[in-house]
Amino acid sequence: MIFSQDNRRRDAKTPPSYSLFLSFYILHEGLRMFPLFTRNLLSGDIVLFGPAGIIDHSRIQDLQARHGDNPAIKADHNFDLLGSTVSTMEVFLHHICLQSPTSDYVDILADILRPHIPDSLPVIGCLFSSDLNTNPLHIWTTFPLSVGSEPPPLFSVIILSPLNGQQFRYFCSATVTKSGRCQEEEAELHVRAVFARLLTSFAKRDRTVDGIEVEKVIRKIGNPLRSSIYVGAVHAKWQYALKSFAIKGHPCIICARPPKSTGRTSNWDCSSDSGWTISQLRESDVPHVRDRLTAFPRSYEHILARLPYSVCVRRASDDKLVAWNALDWDGALGMLFVEPECRGLGLAKMCKAAILRKLEQMYGTDEQGREGVYPWARWEFNGISPDNAASLGLTKSLDGWNESFHCNWTYFALPDVYPSVVDKPSNL
To answer: Do 219 and 428 form a contact (C-beta atoms < 8 A)?
Structure first.
């Protein structure tokens, strides 16, 4: 309704009767919500009160009608960490720490994730590319991992690596909905509940994060600064469901190439007739590489750990480093860079071809006869910023490479109802 200036002036004063009514209404709503607040407070759940009267009752009733007595759907109303109202789903995060590549959990989780490739590549790739002997992974699942167990149709997996600034990767089985298995509404509730539980656990430092140096994981982001965690490769499908937790992020396009049999692979480290030599990055190269990777910074320790998984091109005449590429900790082909004065000479394609040959040699033989499954059947992928037209064009020009899905690298806020765990801003 549009009011004239006179009407606005006349209605500027609130009638005393309306003020009295509003006071009684607020008191009534407070008394009505008090049992819910107390119950959730005692159970350890977070409840933040938003504006009264905006709870989506119809959405909750619709979910209950769809799923009957499903205990995963709560009849209560709850609030998300930033104050808006949502209906919630109960989830429990099972936490394990992988410290060996021969752990049974590696094979169990890999077998669960393989049917979901390529969407699960950023998570399953962590199992085989993270050097578990020196860089253990923390893993949370919404179901217990055990030999022979089958996960439910709707599940989530979260991985935290100490490499590259304590980053997370996330996958949900409902990323690509299969006919009748997962309702979209239930999947959104599930994803929100998983992130709410994870963020709450880091804020409270409860048993879900036992064994983790929380101070190293939490980053200060935004204005004003807020405690957050950094999660990469979150499928764009969940962007709306998680928007109230997000502080900031940047989009990314995941391009992938399915396994391709090339027969016996030729040597990857060789000289080129055009005056270039192909080899592996050296430890002395790390400071220079780090200085060049400004768009997506990597730590010195991270680059050092990736040297065995790297290739580079040097000018034969003076041994100058001019281009490089490496396998990142999550299994993605990353850190591709060509010195500006050498661009347009085909060196990026030379790096790509060399690293693909190298990885085929590294993973080409498996003593247990699993050559037909990832990572021995190589699915390769990389993440490209949507505004990087040159890199996107290069990747699509390579045989077998296509866009797979869109995702986001996002900072997710911890709830403010708990004390801040760090005071220094993030360097990313």
So the answer is: yes
Q: Which residues pair with 380 in a beta bridge?
A: 257
What is the sign, positive or negative, of the torsion defined by CA atoms of 79, 83, 86, 91?
negative
Evaluate if residue 403 carries a pLDDT over 90: yes
Q: Is 173 helix (H, G, I), strand (E, B) or coil?
A: helix
For residues 280 and 303, give the distance between their C-alpha atoms in angstroms, rounded to a whole number. 12
Highest mean pLDDT pick, 45-49, 156-160, 255-259: 156-160
Q: CB under 8 Å, gap of 24 or more: what pairs does 50-57 form?
A: 50/79, 50/83, 50/84, 50/85, 52/25, 52/26, 53/29, 54/85, 55/85, 56/85, 56/86, 56/87
Rounded to 5 degrees, what are φ and ψ at 240? Answer: -70, -40
Rounded Cα–Cα distance for residues 93 and 144 (Å): 9
pLDDT value at residue 201: 94
Q: What are the residues whose beta carbons fall under 8 Å from the beta carbon of 130, sequence distance 6 or more? A: 137, 161, 163, 329, 330
Taking the CA atoms of the chain, what radius of gyration do you get in angstroms? 25
DSSP 104-150: HHHHHHHHHHGGGTTTTHHHHHHHHHS-TTTS-EEEEESS---TT--
Structure-token pair, residue 31: 């008394």
The pTM for the full model equals: 0.76
Residues in the chain: 428
pLDDT of residue 87: 44
